[in-house]
Amino acid sequence: MKRSRINQIMAEADAMISRHGFTLPPFARWSPETFRDRADAAAHVIDSRCGWDITDYGQGDFDGMGLFLFTLRNGLLSDLQGGGGMCYAEKLLISRRDQLSPLHTHVIKAEDIINRGGATLAVQLYGSDDAGNLARDRGGRVLCDGIARDFAAGEVLTFAPGESITLRPGDWHAFWGEGGDVLIGEVSTVNDDETDNIFAEPIGRFSEIEEDEPPVHLLVSDYARWL
């Protein structure tokens, strides 16, 4: 992805988030230079990879397959493995109209996906086989706003603003905005996007970036190189 396109997506996402009454934390406004200057104080933000996250899954077609994310807070795997401390995470996501977030599951993370506003959120679901692999002939059971609901293999469930789905490890899912763009909340156990995204197809979680202009804000995938 070109850095200019990433900067544009950030501005558009920020405007949508504001329209829905959400305010991002102060570090969202930091320039790369401010992040460098405050890296010691911001060690937890950096280590837990909080912040801006924009991906086209390495496919070069953000509008067709992509996702905007902002990780608001996140614990560390060491807390989760130790059974105490900051064992949770929270994100805001934007799924654009007909923009696919491709079929995947998680090994560790359980998550509530909440339609916070906008259009309809569509979620396609599959179950797992006994080894946890994708089973295109199996359904399963999820919680929708805390109420148990069975799903058939490949069934698409839809969620209006205010509605939610709880996904556990082994619940294979893809999602997109139906009828328009959707602001999504995610509340989960500790989030590790580097190792805990298992995709049905061989695609990448993060994008290669072409630096055609300076970044307005750093992405979480920039931290290792910039900081």
TrEMBL record:
<dbReference type="InterPro" id="IPR047581">
    <property type="entry name" value="EcSI_cupin"/>
</dbReference>
<protein>
    <recommendedName>
        <fullName>D-lyxose ketol-isomerase</fullName>
        <ecNumber>5.3.1.15</ecNumber>
    </recommendedName>
</protein>
<dbReference type="InterPro" id="IPR014710">
    <property type="entry name" value="RmlC-like_jellyroll"/>
</dbReference>
<comment type="similarity">
    <text>Belongs to the D-lyxose ketol-isomerase family.</text>
</comment>
<keyword id="KW-0119">Carbohydrate metabolism</keyword>
<dbReference type="Pfam" id="PF07385">
    <property type="entry name" value="Lyx_isomer"/>
</dbReference>
<keyword id="KW-0464">Manganese</keyword>
<dbReference type="GO" id="GO:0047828">
    <property type="term" value="F:D-lyxose ketol-isomerase activity"/>
</dbReference>
<dbReference type="InterPro" id="IPR010864">
    <property type="entry name" value="D-lyxose_isomer"/>
</dbReference>
<keyword id="KW-0413">Isomerase</keyword>
<dbReference type="GO" id="GO:0046872">
    <property type="term" value="F:metal ion binding"/>
</dbReference>
<keyword id="KW-0479">Metal-binding</keyword>
